[in-house]
Amino acid sequence: MTQMEIVRDDTIKTASKAADWNPTQVDMEDLDFSLFRNNFNALVKDQPWLAQKLQDVKDTQAVLVHGENGYDIKFRDDYFYGMGGNDWAKTFEDAFENPKRISRLVLSPPDTTNLDDRSNETVYRIMKRAVSKGISFAEQPTTYETFHLVVFGIALGEHIPSLIKRTKCRHLVLVEPNIEFLYLSLFTFDWAKLLKNMKRNGRELSIIVEKDYQIIAGIIRSRVRYMNPAFMDSIWFLRSYTNAIMLQALEELMNDRDLLIAGLGFLEDEMDMVRNSYFNLRDCDFKYYIRRKDIIHVPAFIIGGGPSLDNDLEFIRQNQNNAIIISCGTALRSLLHADIRPDFQVEMENVPAVTQLHEKLSKNFNIRDIMLIASSTIDPDVKALFDKTVFYFRSSLASYPFFNQGDESCVENSIPTVSNLGFSLAQEIGCRTIYTFGTDLGTRDPSRHHAKDAPYNVGDIEFDTKITDPVPGNFGGTVLSEMVYLWSKDGLEMAIRRFPASRVYYNCADGVRIEGTIPKLSSTIKLQAQPEKADIIRKIWEDFPAYTPELFEKSWTKRKSVKLMKAFTKNVLEILKDDDKRKVTNNKKNAKKKYSNYHFNDYQEVVRLLIPENGVITPEIHYLRGSSLLCLSAIYVYYQRIRGRKERKAFLKISREEFIKQVNEIEEIVLDFYKTLET
Length: 679
Fold this sequence. Notes:
It is globular and about 80 Å long. By secondary structure, it is of the alpha/beta class. The protein has three domains: 18-108 and 144-260, Rossmann fold (3-Layer(aba) Sandwich); 304-550; 557-677, no CATH class. It is built from 23 helices and 22 strands. The longest helix has 33 residues, at 645-677.
């Protein structure tokens, strides 16, 4: 039986008080089972995973009651609505004016800090033309319209249709930790009709019935990003009732709002990734990564460069022969200065600072015999400093479709920081016990952002990130963090959930609390000697396959890159050539339909090309995706702040014309890139 935690929120104005509400408990055998069957069959087609969960609901703590003006839910001598569901749905309409029941995610106006060069130039041209036309912009969104609508609490569902109508949402997310409510609603609410109407009008539905607030927040983030990461601004979060789980999920979403649009990439970066991969792989003097199946009983130390690393360097030095040492990025400098030689150095960034760090270290230390495990996209000059290099392929980059050697050649959950890469590497090479040091992902002291000997503290690399967000600390209290670090935390927690029962994780860093890890002071750790460690490291190296000239030729020549780039941009431009009243294609029925009540039909079609349903991301998509989505995000933010209907229409015309220019510019740049790469 499901354990429920429910608190009915009385901030809704009720037409009748609970004392006046005397409904009769419903005998389930008297209900309309045809409605239930229609609803269930509709969910089987649209949400098959959910239908299976509903099928497992046998007994419910909550029961249906019925009185004047509809159904209600009775739970532990209390009523959910305190009135008929129909009346409650009407009273819920004032939720948009009730700050206790609603939150709205409002993004700051885009500028050079959150736009790449390409989209920044386009947005500048758009705004210059818009202002010259007399179009004015408010500081906040001017309508109830939103692309994404998140509703916490399905209850019996009566309020859902009016919310869709009022917000004109294209993507509806329903969160209900109490699946019993959803089950009961199948007898009283026409879900089949709702699903049919949503499909007819080009809307999408996501239903979440999890009970862990972090999982709920994670699913919402992933679904929103998949449906349309460009239209994040003005998302409504409505609460049908108060529940601790939902409140925690909402808090996490609002605190980490920047994660919704993080990691979209941009054109210049994607071309750099392809260029670096091309020159790294062309010489074929390395091995490539393949996930291992063996289990390793030697523990792994994952070393990040956070400030608490200084406290653990002596312990690591004394135990470096008792564990596999994985150094993550800039942590290498601190380790070498403490007379610690890591077994693996992991790198993923293609920035010049990575090359400069290793060149400086190579002058004072022998780093050649350290095994480098790096993304194929790093600066080619780094590889020359190591005798043993293993390249893995990052599935989220333009280089991946060209050069990858299958899914097993990438490291899962390896972003956004090198600590994520090191952690997942330890999992995938087979380590059962993993300790993390210096993976602070924040700081207790804002003046100390990295370890004492880190490149950031000796002037080699500039650090200008503001660490100001308070979060729970690993050893209690509060630690300050920031957006990328919190993204990294999410990634580590995802990696842990990937191996829930077969691994043990100890967090020795005095930083951010990471769910799934056990806080552990290094002074309390006692490790056994590992005489077989050297043989295990050698076996890991031998297990990685050698990259050959044949593999390179096959990877680079099999794609007709120029032709494919032209074909893809042609598809995008075909969508954009008509105005906002044009009809669009319903892919499932291959019939022409008009998405009702929304002005971004063409842009949404472009987004679906950039985020295809089949999940296959080609280089052409990579080149266009980041800059296009950032530009569309800016367009949407400004559109939401225009009051007049005519002004909105004029703005959309301007934005479409300038966005088309951007697509043409990107095509020209990429085609020129292909011409010059081999020369």
